[in-house]
Amino acid sequence: MWLLLLACHPCTLTDWDDLAVRIDAGVDEDTLDGLLRVLDQFIGWSGREQSCVRTLTVRSDYDLVREGYGAGGSYRSTTGELQVSTAFEDPETGLLHELCHATWQQDRAWREDRELFPRGSLDRGDGKGADREEVFALTCEVGPQQALRQAWVQEQCGVGVTDRDPASLQRVQEAVYGEAAAGADWGPAGEPAPVGPTWTVSEPEPDLQLTGVDAGLDHVVVAWSSRAEEGRVIVEHRAPQDGAVAIRHELQACGPAPYLCLVSLLAGPDGPWLFADGGTQVEEQRLWQLLPTGPVEHPTLCEQGDGEVVVDGTMWELAWNWREDDGGREVTGLWVDGCQVDSGQAVREILPMPSFPLRGWRLTWTEPTLTWVGQDLAVWWPDAGLSGSGEQGWAEQELPPHLDLAGVAPGPDGELGFLVQTEDLDGGHTLGLSTLWPAAGTWEAPTPTCEVLPAPIETDDTWAATGEVEARLLRGRGWGALARRAPGEQEWNVTVAALR
Ligand SMILES: [Zn+2]
Q1: Ligand 1 mean position, distance from CA 114 (Å)
Q2: What is the CATH number of the domain that holds 40?
Q3: How far is the CA of 102 from the centre of ligand 1 (A)?
């Protein structure tokens, strides 16, 4: 009789509410928050009230009792002890991996289907073939959202993005992550976004240098500065579909007789602006809104020359302090400085300090991007979240960590378009598009475009270009364009993708 019971319940089932959690003193708060979030997410995705985990220990050392070859974790089926160590890289995947081992214990049915999770089909992490349980855990640790996105790219674009077996992945999705549809919150996969032909931004005449590329609602704007004639600027409004120059304007940005004229293209909700700084013995700053009907100059006393966006009559620039130590980078002060275009009056907005509880965001922290939602300012923190200003002041919003977001561009209706990258088996990245509606906090399923960025070129010279293709998203009304350029290149290649 007890044998039969053992077969049905191979472990002592514990309610998630009764799980004992122990945390080492050396575990930092952000990392712990990230781990607890993964645990909550897993419970939600599985839809189960009980598991084969009795205790969870979060450690900060390397001294794990290792049974499997997961990333920095261990699970003992006999005692229900799950340990994960933050000393290893990516403890969140480590935790998910061990939770998967516990699920293998809970569901004996896995073992009966010999076709699934074939022994030796995956590397267990040390060059040796994994046993069936390990193959299962490695397939399950991918999580439902990542698996769904990878499946879409594989099916729709015919690009190999995962070494996991599709049938095994699907089985895991159905049986382990049965409630994940709510977690992914994406609905069914969209058709791939149809993309138009690629056109290249090239000089309309010799001796010009590219100043900037941006988007208006119905056109792509390209600005060029003359090398031969200081202060002479050519602005092109091009049709996004084929790059044909619809309108060309020329203006003298500094003068008269400038000896040095610094010109920059600034983005804004109503289309790009052009800022010029310097020129004569009397320092001057000039500002134009680049409308299709022609550049409209706004008298300005604004003195900053590297403002990033012009929103609602104010030229905004992002500023922050950060310190760097062994633990990575940490932001210590954060604000945006504004200058009202017509009066020159200075404005400062203090942003809340980012406290996104995401894995390793301090370590992967890269420069934030200033953008906008409607007519309000927003800041995108890659790998972390979005800070937005509004009537209630500044507020933060997390972004899904399972989407590899490579670029942002505001849409015409208060939405934010994101460029999503899915890495393939050759190290390249298939580009997709995903839309966030910040007011509702909802995401649309990422749509693959099937455009692929090649793998970065390895280089020994750390001062040389990184070898990564630079990618940007341009958004207008009803269209989005992928702009990309090779390392060290000036020219952009632009492809328009139809958006819903
Ligand atoms: Zn394992």
Answers
A1: 19
A2: 3.40.390
A3: 10
